[in-house]
Amino acid sequence: MKLKDIFLVLLFILIASLNLFASNSRKSEIDNILYYANWIKNHEYTTYENYENELNYTTIEVSDREKCGFLPNEISYTKNANLYCTEIYLDDVKDRLIAMMQIEGSGRFPYLTIFRFDSKKQKWIIYYYGDGSAGNCGLVYPVQNPITGKTLFFEEERNFDNRRLVAYNLLSFKNKKWKKESTARACYVYNLTNDEKKWISSGIIEKMATFDYSFMGLKGDHPEIIEREVLDKKIIAKPYYTSVGYMASNFEIIIYKRGGEVLKNEGKAFEDEREILKINEGQWGFNLVEKGNKFYLVYIGMGNSREQRVSTIESFMLNVLDLSTLEIVYSSYINCDIEFK
């Protein structure tokens, strides 16, 4: 074998070995993050009620606006919105620290406050504040580094629009700045049956999840209104926004009988457009499908009152409505699997 050939073989073996090492290293990193995810699910954090005697209106030295949630007439709301209140340990801070996470609003936004004890003043002051709705801080859980004993933060990163899980991140926090140490990105997998594939695809589901209706010929995302005419029907869909005013959460879908001339006993007459069906609330997306010269409204969303319900575009109820008879001809609950990469 020529020297050049030997070099190429060795190079190939080296590259393969490095790729295998990188693959194993990445798997180990993801396994580590998923370990913390599982730990959090099975761990019970202390809450504000455990620290009420330490953190209250008289012991916190901040502006009246910043501590209004600790007033007697507001404290019940503070307790209800509290996810955890627990001590943390950071490399660059020797004083006592308490991390307090509030979950508030229709968007379930996280608000993290880290209190630091000022031994000179014998008061708690705000060391850090992160407003989740403004994107300064996601939903984070303190976890302890088993080697150093210091606090890391496990972040559950979600898409602002659809509340889908984007990734699990492991963060460090130093000098009031976040640093992403590792991440495991979520991938949604739909193992559709052959019957389900007749009506919807994984690609369409992903577009619906981002309010992208290019598959219906619309440009851009988050359409203000979708209007389609099929035979003697008109379908109008409007996104419903949460109380914060800019997070589309689902669609209101109404089917109308189109107006126009009709034949009656006395001859021709004109009928006004009229509503004939309103789809129940909580529909995440929809599509129009033509099969065998018939049109169907295919929509996905939360189940009905007696069915399994979800609050994000993950698993969902699939319904197929025959637009000629306005009857449901197919229904299926579709579960998603989340893989991490």
The ordered string of helix (H) and strand (E) elements is HHHEEEEEEEEHHEEEEEEEEEEE
Q: What kind of sheet is the major sheet?
A: 5 strands, antiparallel
Rg of Cα set = 27 Å
- Alpha plus pi helix count: 5
| Fraction of helical residues | 10-25%
User: What class would the helix/strand composition place it in?
Assistant: alpha+beta
Dominant shape: elongated
Q: Count the beta strands.
A: 19
pLDDT averaged over residues: 85
Q: What percentage of amino acids are in beta strands?
A: 35-45%
Span between termini: 41 Å
Looking across the biggest beta sheet, what order are the strands in? 5-6-7-8-19
Low-confidence stretches: 7-22
Structure summarized in a few sentences:
The chain is of the alpha+beta class. It contains five helices and 19 strands.
What would you say this structure looks like, in words?
With 341 residues, this protein is α+β, with helices and mostly antiparallel strands. The protein is built from five helices and 19 strands. It has helices at 3-41, 48-51, 75-80, 194-197, 202-209; strands spanning 82-88, 97-104, 109-118, 123-131, 139-144, 151-158, 165-174, 177-189, 226-230, 233-241, 248-257, 260-264, 267-271, 274-278, 283-291, 294-301, 316-322, 327-334, 337-340. The strands form five sheets. Strands 5-6-7-8-19 form a five-stranded antiparallel beta sheet, with helices on one face. Strand 1 and strand 2 (97-104) form a beta hairpin. The two termini are 41 Å apart. The model is unreliable at 7-22 (pLDDT under 50).
